[in-house]
Specification:
It is a single chain. With 386 residues, the protein is of the alpha/beta class. It is 40% helix and 14% strand. It has a seven-stranded mixed β-sheet with strand order 2-10-9-8-7-3-4, covered by helices on one side. Strands 11-12-15-14 form a four-stranded antiparallel β-sheet, with helices on one face. The longest helix is centred in the last third of the chain and has 21 residues.
């Protein structure tokens, strides 16, 4: 019997929710069912709510420091759940993956340096490179006949030049849902090592991995010198805490860590705030059973999509994340036509695939981290049109 309730719909309208209150502004179209922003429509674990309530009841919300438990709870979680060894002196608290990436691009690379992304990929990675005047270099993922994506290692090595300085890895991958294997990551590490590339690995979805798959962190890659890597993790996606802006940048190289810490001080970014600290400690110390039940619920949501979704829409079950990458290419619609049909006829707020870069055309990203009645409604809306 389930200990936690993921099926009850919790209204999010009029809560300053980006997903629910900003859909028309961002996507256009009125009265859309929003399944776009990558947060969950589930309450965070009760242990988190209780920790925050204790903080609130104290009544004083002054300046804070970062206690040792913030680090130890995260370190223990990574070791116990994923067998990843992380030392406290390698961790820098940050507000999120995109903040860390933008600061790294600004201060660790030069104008004109090439940064490789494997597309389709989370759009802020692409925009961060461009907006910081670095050169975006695209290496599209390959896809087999079953819709499974892979690295194109031959093309990856071919496009590297003397100006190529880094790669941005998204693992588990948003939006295609791959959880890359040890063998794939080792091969990626060999090529990156051969060309002296920095590897920035976004692993914020790494706890959201389904039962038939195993997550491997880039930190566990043996073919790469981790003095040249950065890894981003955190409780935001795992426990639905993204609004508390709490994450961790892992820097195995002490010089890199000191350099990045100075950058944060220069920008007056002095570490996590009290509510994020309390939530993170509670989640990592006590949220394991909640996450286990969440993953079972999400797997049932995947089963529902596979069973009920129109066969005209191609869908491969993700190995990780709570994001469905829907392929509409068999319908022969233009990007504009597809976008209009989804918004005007299905009345759904989804992420258009073309925004994820090369390879995203004719796709839509659907967030299925929602109560089943909402997902059933979304599937019915799609099936009426397709």
């Amino acid at each position: 019997m389930s200990q936690f309730d993921f099926n009850t719909i919790i209204p999010r309208q009029n809560t300053n929710s980006l997903k629910w209150d900003y859909t028309e502004k961002m996507l256009g179209g009125k009265d859309l069912l929003p399944l776009w922003v990558a947060d969950m429509d589930f309450a965070s674990p009760p242990c988190v709510t209780e920790a925050l309530q204790r903080k609130i009841s104290h009544g004083i919300y002054g300046y804070n420091f970062t206690p040792p438990a913030f680090f130890s709870s995260f370190i223990q979680w990574q070791k116990t759940r994923k067998n990843i060894d992380i030392k406290e002196n390698e961790i820098i608290p940050i507000t999120g993956a995109v903040t860390a990436l933008s600061l790294l691009l600004q201060h660790s690379f030069e104008v004109g340096d090439e940064i490789i992304c494997f597309t389709p990929v989370y759009p802020p990675f692409l925009s961060a490179i461009k907006e910081n005047n670095r050169e975006l270099k695209i290496c599209p993922l390959k896809r087999d006949n079953d819709g499974k994506y892979f690295f194109d290692f031959e093309n990856f090595e071919k496009i590297i030049t003397h100006k190529t300085k880094a790669i941005i890895l998204c693992n588990p991958h948003n939006p295609v849902g791959r959880c890359f294997t040890q063998e794939e990551l080792e091969q990626l590490g060999i090529i990156a090592q051969r060309h002296n590339l920095v590897v920035i690995s976004d692993e914020v979805h790494s706890d959201l991995v389904y039962s038939k798959h195993q997550f491997r962190s880039f930190l566990q890659v043996k073919s790469f010198d981790h003095q040249n890597s950065y890894v981003i993790m955190g409780p935001g996606k795992t426990f639905n805490l993204s609004g508390l802006a709490t994450a961790m940048l892992i820097c195995p190289n002490p010089k890199y860590k000191d350099f990045f810490q100075k950058i944060l001080y220069r920008h007056a970014l002095y570490g996590p705030k009290s509510f994020g600290i309390a939530a993170s400690i509670a989640a990592y110390d006590q949220g394991g059973h909640w996450l286990d039940e969440l993953l079972l619920y999400l797997e049932h949501n995947i089963d529902l999509i596979q069973k009920e979704l129109s066969p005209q829409i191609s869908f491969r079950a993700p190995e990780a994340t709570y994001l469905a990458w829907l392929n509409f290419s068999s319908l022969g619609l233009s990007e504009k036509e597809l976008n209009e049909v989804i918004k005007e006829k299905a009345k759904l707020g989804l992420n258009p695939g073309f925004t994820f870069g090369v390879g995203g055309e004719q796709h839509m990203r659907l967030n299925f981290a929602c109560p089943r009645p909402i997902l059933e409604d979304a599937i019915q809306r799609l099936n009426k049109i397709f």
